């Protein structure tokens, strides 16, 4: 059978800074590497409504985990020669991966699967995952600032605290703490924290993790989160498909998370199908879609790797930035 060719993304000069591959070509890069996860483990890791399966992990995430371990190894080698040159004896800081994408696109599943896959490779046994949800302002603060209707937009996060967290990780701090967020109560959990203790790899997952630097009060550019990423991934899909996935997930949540008496969204549990579809469409159109179009999607080009999903939620193409 003829080998499928990579489809390059050319600029006006006939060259491209990216390597672009369709699914069969990318899947070949796994070679004969055994899959370290079982079907039961994949079922446990996938997000609600994300139909990831063994084939998807074998063909997409196994090659990606191989590539990432190569990047980690490259950074480790560069660290060794640099410390020798500087006549220092310092340990390599954690390799930080940023994962971005829309609500309902599957970035949480991507992050959890990568965490498990990378931890099975011998050179990266300690892999931690932190979501930026923990750096959302508490609901009381959002309400005070009239930002509850913009929760998930860049201004709803304590961006200084998030940046400080990643800076401390990349500075080699022995222990770094992040607030813990509850999707049940839709709020920060007071007094609860996520503790990160010098992992080999840290995955930072969130809607806006690839946002560029902003200007301070004096008009000068300041540091941004992506400045401290060693690798970044953008999970992409047609917004029409993402809207459909969001609505389908909303409908299913009525009988699961929404039905919990402690859920912030308990009021949605008893909606009829028509009412739920109408409500989900309204939330998507007024919050999630504007955030995607204005803030999230424009950062796609900043990613080291873009995973593009088809209408069935499976990854159809990979675009990787050349070194």
Order of helices and strands: EHHHEHEHHEEEEHHEE
Q: What is the CATH H-level superfamily of the domain at 22-130 and 205-210 and 222-321?
A: P-loop containing nucleotide triphosphate hydrolases
Strand order of the largest sheet: 1-9-8-7-2-6-3
Major sheet characteristics: 7 strands, mixed
What is the CA-CA span between the terminal residues?
30 Å
Number of strands: 9
Which structural class fits the helix and strand makeup?
Answer: alpha/beta
* Average pLDDT reading: 90
Helix content: 25-40%
At the fold tier of CATH, the topology name of the domain at 22-130 and 205-210 and 222-321 is Rossmann fold
**β content, as a range?**
15-25%
CATH architecture label name of the domain at 22-130 and 205-210 and 222-321:
3-Layer(aba) Sandwich
Radius of gyration: 20 Å
Q: Determine the number of helices (DSSP H or I, runs of at least 4 residues).
A: 8
